[in-house]
Amino acid sequence: MNRTNRRGFTLVEVIITVSIIGILLAIAIPNMVGYRKGAEKEGCQDQMRSILSAIEEARLERDYTVLNTLQTSGTIDVLVTGTESGNWKNKYLPEAITCPSGGAAYSVSYNETSDTWTVTCPNAESKGHAL
User: Looking at the 3D structure of the chain, how many domains does it have?
Assistant: First the structure.
């Protein structure tokens, strides 16, 4: 048998190559999933900071209509729709903000004794992430 005219790969070479690729993917895929969840958590915290900034802006402008609505409803809708104040409309957020990983709306609560606002993510994985 003359091996000088050999073309292509043997079955063993192909199996070894596929095995190596499979091992590399088995190592890489779980790491990528972890990075994605970390990025979603960071995005969620950024959204909550934006909401708190909007609440602080309403507080500094003494827009008590918005603050009272936030306190009673627990939702951030009034920050987007705003309230009529003179000839212009106060809007503290340009658009509705939802959780990047779950798509649900954030909840807002006010603690009168410490005079602090808390924004909570509705996503089950992010429960406890309150600012």
Answer: 1
